[in-house]
Request: fold
Amino acid sequence: MGCKARFSEDSFTAEGLPKTVTVYDALNKMLGLGEVSPRGTGVRGYYPYMHEHTRNDKMRRVAYMHLSPMIRERLRGQCATINEARKMVNFMTKARESELAPSSRGFYRYDSAIGIELETYGTISRDALISVLPYWARAKNDGSIRPADGTDHEVILLMPRSELEPRLFKVCKLLRSTGLQTNRSCGLHVHIDFRRYSEKECIAQARIMNAWLEAMQELVPLSRRENTYCQFGISQTSRYRAVNVLSYNAHKTLEIRLHSATLDYTKILAWIRLLELLRVIRKKPKAAGCIATLEQLPLATHDLIYWKMRHQQCNPAQYTQTLSAEQE
Reply:
């Protein structure tokens, strides 16, 4: 912020803009936005996420997140040219004409959104971590994380599903480069977009997903199967469930909390692909063991191979016993 660039009166008159304008003035004029200040600080500016946001503040957040990279740079204090100012005003006009409420069905112009929460810890400070994160990510503390050393960090990502792969790859590489790590106190939470569905439809699908995940719980480490923060069964009073339906009222999403923490791009993507498949399955699984249940799903061959390998990694005792019996 703080851009004080002034353009010639003739230039702005030709564009139908005020005679004197800053990037801040244009943004405030077109969307009615104001600066906000994070709790406990005196620094004011535009922040993608803040817990104390009201519904109108969320409109600010969504508008900020969808500004083009050029505009975001100008909002950080660099002076804009008349051409850039015109592009910004055109963009904000379109944003204002859209349905700005995050919960509305028509706002996101891509297929669906995906949210990911990565619980980690490391010696990097919160401010330093925030400074290197892309605009569609944020970091905060999480009291459930027990870091071996350093500071606990929960990194939250929000992105269009169509851009999941490149963005997730980028942020996983970035977080590993900062020295962040995970342990058994950390988890991986995925938010699946349910804005186009009613709460009743969301809960019905949650019950189906819970049944599949419970039947395939051997795909995750034992520390997640017996974890008070991701218990099986649907609850409308507790969010500490493998499939959390309370996130529907808060975010219009279904939160899956079962997977163990990881910064491995391949593991996270494979888990999301499995959840997306369970998201559209309309029947609960037939009674069977973990692998037999997995084989009931229409998985691609490489996905099925991955999950069978993952099952072996999470349940080595089962495979040791089988090997011993064959040797005998």
